[in-house]
Amino acid sequence: MSGRNSTAMIATLGFVTALSGFLIVTVFQATKPAIEENKRLAIQKTVLEVIKGATADKHFIINEKGELLEAVPGMKGINVYAGYDAQGKLVGVAAEGSAQGYSGSVDTIYAYTPACECITGIKVIKQTETPGLGDKVITDKHFVANFDKLEAKVNAAGDALANAIVAVKHGAKQNPWEIDAISGATISSKAIAKGLNNSAQDVLPKVVPLLPQIEGAQP
């Protein structure tokens, strides 16, 4: 192959590569708003499912300064979703948790009810665990019952949970902050517990002082 042909081929390949890259970026930018909106609607639906009694919600961001701000696209910080009843009264808040399971991350949205200082609902929004085993965290009624009233009290110093949320061997639960694991799906059970604990340890100490502000907001 002559030098001229090689140069032409390289130039053509370079052009095709650049064009492909341009098209990928263009398509991504064009579809990004729709993807973000679909994600927002999916989270909103989940929030209203996990916060019992909620008929309306409001999305907030807690920034690095600990300030509560109404969320807008592109804003960085901790996502907090407030749920209000038909009379506009705050009934709970929701946040996101995530931890590594057996074959991938297990992502959840969970509800915190201030009245009992406990987690009162959870929904797995993403998981890639072994079918029939790991997916029991979604289908096993006994396991889901762990989250009817899972203690998540903030300690006296206000900087962490009074007791860490942990998964224990099936049948060994003795404390209200423990999660009774599923036999045969211990790793997935522990991933749920770890994701909740990591999130709640960080989020709830920031949320609790802001509850009066959240309650006074209009959904």
Structure description:
By secondary structure, the protein is of the alpha+beta class. It has one domain (32-216). The protein contains five helices and nine strands; from the N terminus they run H-E-E-E-E-E-E-H-H-E-E-E-H-H. It has helices spanning 3-50, 136-139, 141-144, 186-207, 211-216; strands spanning 56-62, 68-70, 78-84, 90-100, 105-113, 118-126, 150-151, 166-168, 178-180. The strands form two sheets. A seven-stranded antiparallel beta sheet has the order 2-1-3-4-5-6-7. A two-stranded parallel sheet has the order 8-9. The longest helix is centred in the N-terminal third of the chain and has 48 residues, at 3-50. It is globular, with a radius of gyration of 22 Å. 31% of the residues are buried.
- End-to-end Cα distance, whole Å, is 70 Å
Main sheet: strands, sense, barrel: 7 strands, antiparallel
Number of domains: 1
What's the alpha carbon Rg, rounded to whole Å?
22 Å
Q: What's the overall average pLDDT, rounded?
A: 85
Q: SSE layout and pairings?
A:
Elements: H1 3-50, E1 56-62, E2 68-70, E3 78-84, E4 90-100, E5 105-113, E6 118-126, H2 136-139, H3 141-144, E7 150-151, E8 166-168, E9 178-180, H4 186-207, H5 211-216
Parallel strand pairs: 8-9
Antiparallel strand pairs: 1-2, 1-3, 3-4, 4-5, 5-6, 6-7
Which features does this protein show?
seven-stranded antiparallel beta sheet; two-stranded parallel sheet; alpha+beta; 5 helices; cell membrane; FMN binding; electron transport; 219 residues; EC 7.-.-.-; FMN; globular; single chain
